[in-house]
Amino acid sequence: MSNNLIVLGIDDGHSGIKLYAGLDQNGNEVKLTVPSIAYSGRMLNGDPDDVDLQIMKVGSNTFTVGRKINSKIVLDTRTDEYPISDHNKALIHQAIRFYCDHAGINDLQKKHFAIATSLPVSRYYAGDYKNTELIKLKTDFLLNDTECFNVLDQRNHRSPNVIKKHIVLCEAQAAYFNEIIDVHGLPAENSQLFINTECAVIDIGGKTTDIVVTLEGGNMVDAGRSKSENLGILSIKDRISDLLKENGCQKVNANWLEFALDGNGTYGIGSQAKDITNLINSAKQEFMLNLVNFIGKQIGSGDDLALIVFCGGGTAFLENEINNHYSSYGNVRIAKDPEYANAKGIWKMANYLFKLGKS
After folding, report:
1. Buried residues in 33-64 as b, exposed as e (16+ CB within 10 A)
2. pTM metric for this prediction
3. CA distance 137 to 165
4. What are phi and psi of 131, to 5 degrees?
5. Which of 11, 238, 280, 289 has the greatest number of CB atoms lying within 10 Å of its CB?
6. CA 67, CA 50: separation in Å to the nearest integer?
7. What is the per-residue pLDDT across 161-220, written as a single tens digit (0 to 9) for each?
8. To 5 degrees, how large is the angle CA 301–CA 237–CA 274?
């Protein structure tokens, strides 16, 4: 905690809201994900408790969050406005609400938070400098007085979760700090080598792949080699959907597709079930060709770098493909728990900055 505020690192990405809160009293990592899925309005009927748990109110706006509804059009998280949108705020507050349940924080305790969220490198930097206008907008929009609550919590008269402090950090840069600092704030193995030489972070997220080449212990980046490209896990899913349609599927069921990607490649149930492993592998290979080309353009062979670390949800999804392609590269590794690397780094940086009084 920082001055009795609970510190949370939140990677509010285009595909999922990843929250990290350090270690619990038993030494286990506290982490959770809320899918970045939101619909405008109340889209569900059913048991009041089950339905209201999925409903968030932000000011006068109502959102159904975290559940795929195949017949409805999901709000796009790949827009420029997403980082300062009401549905982004709804998703972040829903993640904090689930954290409170997970951590056993009850209404007798003050639910006051110091949080850090993030922006991709292409949004965090504008030209040669930080994008101070957007960073300030994003910082302030989570601190403003707009009422935000989970409808089930309001109905049960639970006290609101209050964000007292908020800072915004750069996503891939945060993953670099995750590599050099451990969960206790101490230097990680080989951290001095990584601090004194250039390293690259390749963050495959929902919308983009970000490459950041760090200088001066992560305090600066090499602008010429750092860049974002519209290559993300959502584009792989879009490509698989297109391939399904090319193979006779008139309407793609988003939930069935998720089951296929998370499981054994089977799309559909019963007599409709079919193995789409070949389509998944085809989309992955297409993506890898574009990814490898992008990496080569930005950092070349990368043999002048002390470390090249892959992270992000896309890295977790493509772990086998990345390992196979870069198996001969001695300086390449995949971050432990790659989908949480940014959230962990954000939490570690937030702990340090809040202790310094920077908020």
Report:
1. bbebbbbeeebbeeeeeebbbbbbbbeebbbb
2. 0.93
3. 14
4. -85, 75
5. 11
6. 12
7. 999 999 999 988 999 999 999 999 999 888 888 888 899 999 999 989 999 999 878 888
8. 120
> What is the length of the chain?
359
Report residue 276 as tokens. Answer: 């789409």
Q: How far is CA 63 from the centre of its chain?
A: 20
Compute the distance between CA of residue 17 and CA of residue 78 in angstroms, rounded to an integer. Answer: 14
CB 213 within 8 A of CB 309: no
Q: Are 9 and 32 in contact (CB under 8 A)?
A: no
DSSP notation for 23-67: E-TTS-EEEEEEES-EEES----S-HHHHHHTEEEETTEEEEESS
CB 7 within 8 A of CB 350: yes
- Helix (H), strand (E) at residue 244: helix 233-246
Structure tokens at 237: 């899913």
Q: Which amino acid is at 193?
A: L
**How many Cα atoms are found within 13 Å in the side-chain-facing hemisphere of 36?**
27
Cα of first residue to Cα of last residue in the chain, in angstroms, is 14
Please give the structure tokens belonging to residue 142: 């989570």
